[in-house]
Specification:
By secondary structure, this protein is mainly beta. Helices cover about 10% and strands about 45% of the residues. The chain is built from five helices and 35 strands. It has helices at about 20-35, 200-205, 335, 385-390, 425-430, and strands at about 40-50, 50-60, 65-70, 75-80, 90-95, 100-110, 110-120, 125-130, 135-140, 140-150, 155-165, 165-175, 180-190, 210, 225-230, 230-235, 240-245, 250-255, 255-265, 265-270, 275, 285, 300-305, 305-310, 325-330, 345-350, 360-365, 365-370, 375, 395-400, 405-410, 435-440, 450, 455, 470-475. An eight-stranded antiparallel β-sheet has the order 10-11-12-31-30-32-28-29, with helices on one face. It has a five-stranded antiparallel β-sheet with strand order 3-4-7-6-5, with no helix packed on it. Strands 13-35-14-33-34 form a five-stranded antiparallel β-sheet, covered by helices on one side. Strand 11 (about 155-165) and strand 12 form a beta hairpin.
């Protein structure tokens, strides 16, 4: 009978078993890795570095992550596929910056979650990964601007910034005043003083673009200088800043005062006011823009084609549809002595005026920039604190050394979008845009910039506010 001796399939010294041994070790290594500790977030640091909030996440492994943000509430969130231990699950950092609230480390759907609570939305961060370190740099200060040409001689620009006091959003138009196809003008309601939205003013006058203008009474009557096509309809207040547009197409900004008088046969009779209530001892002129005249409290005559005429008895309730009306004390000897048909003309002159002769003028104030430097003259121009102090929506106009007109609107009263500007900050923006001279215009809820019947900014009321006047950009006919 034949017998067989069993031999082991492997024993030391037999080389054929070495591959199997390697396989066994690999299997044991895999089983060990299954039971090894999952990736962990070892540490998190938050610091302010060069106008950025810097977050450094130290991990035990290079793992997937996700960065996202929300606007209501304003937050930046980083989700990482890494575990947290109990000791770090509720860590909170306070950051000394107006834009940032707290930085919190909590548990999230992927494992670790970093939450940055913001006062207002910030841009997404720059992200860098080096080995197992994840670094995020979130801008807390920045300024970006862009500008594009919308037609020959007209540029539309925007400025987005994050400052220590919050976000700032500004929109502007830059107009080449030397371009033969373009001109500027002052626009008011076409049938007497009143209130209209900026878009309506632009549409009614056929303007390409418009911005809200100077200050006004609730009735729409201007509170400051207004000259339209050489006709004075409102006098200056305290010699405040004004934009003057010359007959030659140029623009100047500076403090202006107006003198008014009546001329009759070589004599001059000084006029105290125009289109406003008359006080005792004054001579006041009313133009058709004023609308229904107040009841007569003295003498009244009319001017038509340079001659004086008696006032009809019913003119106290009707607008002077023809010519001008002059009111005065009933004992004013020179005006009482006038006979029907006597020469009588109303004249005015601006000081210092405009080198090219005044075509249009619009009062505002205060001055913001002179000779390319910030020079705010608010107290001298007798403005109240509601204009001078604090941040608000603002409108301004500037002139560059290259004869370009700047129409600038800064949005405000919206902490998530734009907090507005102080007069100093407004002046600095204008200088950065090249302004050699500049002045403030009416602001707040009035601040509106329109181009081609579209509102380009965000009025703080949530919609357009009717205004008394506007500064308009025209494309000349035939171009």
């Amino acid at each position: 009978m034949r017998t067989f001796r069993l031999r082991p399939w492997w024993r030391p010294g037999i080389l054929i078993g070495a591959p199997l041994l390697g396989l066994l070790f690999a299997l044991l290594s895999h089983v060990s890795s299954v039971f090894a500790q999952a990736p962990m977030l070892k540490s998190l640091s938050a610091s302010l570095v060069e106008e950025h909030l810097r977050l450094d996440l130290e991990l035990t492994d290079s793992v997937p992550f996700r960065v996202w943000r929300s606007h209501t509430p304003a937050r930046l969130v980083v989700d990482v596929e890494a575990d947290l231990d109990q000791a770090t699950s509720t860590t909170v950092w306070s950051v000394d910056d107006p834009a940032v609230g707290d930085v919190r480390l909590v548990r999230g759907p992927l494992g670790a979650r970093v939450v940055v609570d913001l006062v207002y939305p910030l841009p997404l961060p720059l992200v860098e990964r080096r080995g197992t370190t994840l670094t995020l740099r979130i801008p807390v200060r920045y300024k970006e601007s862009e500008e594009l040409q919308v037609r020959p001689g007209v540029w539309l620009g925007s400025i987005q910034a994050l400052e220590a006091h919050g976000p700032v959003s500004a929109t502007y138009l830059k107009v080449d005043l030397r371009h033969p196809d373009l001109s500027m003008g002052i626009g008011t309601r076409q049938k007497g003083f009143g209130l209209d939205p900026v878009r309506s003013l632009a549409s009614a006058h056929g303007a390409l673009a418009a911005v809200n203008g100077g200050y006004f009474h609730w009735s729409g009557r201007p509170l400051g200088l207004v000259v339209q096509r050489g006709r004075l309809t409102s006098a200056d207040l305290y010699g405040r800043a004004a934009l003057t547009l010359g007959l030659d197409g140029s623009a100047q900004i500076g403090n202006q005062r107006v003198e008014m008088w009546l001329e009759t046969e070589g004599r001059v009779i000084w006029v105290d006011g125009i289109n406003r209530a008359r006080a005792a001892g004054e001579v006041v002129v009313y133009t058709p823009e004023y609308g229904p005249l107040p009841a007569t409290a003295g003498g009244r005559i009319l001017i038509e084609d340079g001659r004086a005429y008696p006032s009809p008895s019913d003119l106290s309730i009707d607008a002077p549809n023809w010519g001008l009306a002059v009111e005065f004390d009933s004992n004013h000897s020179e005006l009482i002595a006038l006979s029907p048909g006597d020469p009588l003309r109303f004249q005015h002159q601006l000081f210092p005026g405009h080198a090219g002769g005044v075509y249009d003028a619009l009062g505002g104030g205060p001055m913001l920039v002179s000779e390319g430097e910030i020079r705010i003259t608010g107290e001298r121009e007798r403005f109240q604190p509601d204009v001078l102090n604090g941040r608000a929506p603002r409108t301004a106009v500037g002139v560059t050394v290259d004869d370009e007109l700047l129409l600038l609107v800064v949005d405000g009263r919206n902490p998530a979008v734009s907090v507005g500007a102080t007069l100093e900050e407004l002046a600095q923006l204008l200088i950065e845009l090249g302004a050699e001279t500049a002045m403030n215009l009416d602001g707040g809820g009035s601040s509106t910039l329109v181009l081609k019947n579209r509102i380009l900014n965000r009025p703080s009321d949530g919609q357009e506010r009717p205004v008394g006047n506007g500064l308009l950009l025209f494309v000349n006919e035939g171009t």
